[in-house]
Amino acid sequence: MLEWALASNCKHQILFGRNLNSITCKGLALIVIALFLGVVLLPLLSGYGGIDKNNLDLVYSRSLSLDSDNGIRKDKFLEVPQIVWGLNNQKIAFARACLTARMLNRTLLMPSFSASLFYKEIDRLQPISFDKVFQFDRFDSLCNGFVQLGSYSDLRNQTGVFELQKGSGRKWTAERDLDQLKQFIKDPFDGYEVIRIVGKNPFLWHDHWPVKDYARVFECLVLVEEIAKEADRVVSKIREVGEEISSKIGFAQSDFGSDSSLLEPVPYVAVHMRIEIDWMIHCKKLERKLNVSEICSSRQEIVERVGNIVGLKGPTVVYLAVADSLLEDSSILTGWKDGLVPVEKNKLGVDGIYKKYPISHSVSNRL
Question: Membrane-spanning regions, if any (predicted)?
Answer without folding.
Answer: 28-51
